[in-house]
Amino acid sequence: xxKVLPPKGFxxxxxxxxTVLAGLKFGRIYMDRYPDPLGIGKTPSRFSDPRARxxxxxxxxxxxxxxxxxxxxxAVLRDQRDGVVGDLPIDERELFxxxxxxxxxxxxxxxxxxxxxxxxxxxxxxDVAKAANQTLARAWSVAFHNHPEEPDGxxxxxxxxxxxxxxVFDHAIVKLRAIRVMQLVAAPGxxxxxNDLQVSIVEPDP
Length: 206
Hints:
With about 210 residues, the chain is of the alpha+beta class. Helices cover about 20% and strands about 25% of the residues. It has helices at about 70-75, 95, 120, 125-130, 135-145, 190-195, and strands at about 15-20, 25-30, 60-65, 90, 100-105, 110-115, 155, 165-170, 175-185, 200. Strand 7 and strand 8 form a beta hairpin.
């Protein structure tokens, strides 16, 4: 597929916007060494700012999921199951090194919607919504971030199970609050997720 970048004049087009209402809750799994549940980094990620600028001149992105299962798939499991049939063992340190935060929307979010046919309507290549080309996804993320409609981020389906994810631009972090934070191993629903995905937790070798 050709690498279709945002065209000239994209800023004059209309975005497909979905409003995420105040009061809705999402989850986030993150490493314990980062104590702020709403903290963001500017390292390369799916919709990060790819421009060769100093960090303070690049926007950051915070990723949230609408279920603990999609959070676990995106933050922990990822592609470890590729080619693996049956039970998949994971070192227990993978869980004990992470926290789970429940994040509430306190002010409605205006999100560019890449679900269903909305990406097609905006002329966004399917590789962006499917995460098949991260370089392309980052270029489109910049175009969304800089659009005159000033969206707060991107709402998109997980490439792993189709559940809904949010990529929230750093200027909109003030519209969120963490209402519960706990160790990932204590997160409600995690045991069912591990069972569904046939993942077993093993102790590390002494």
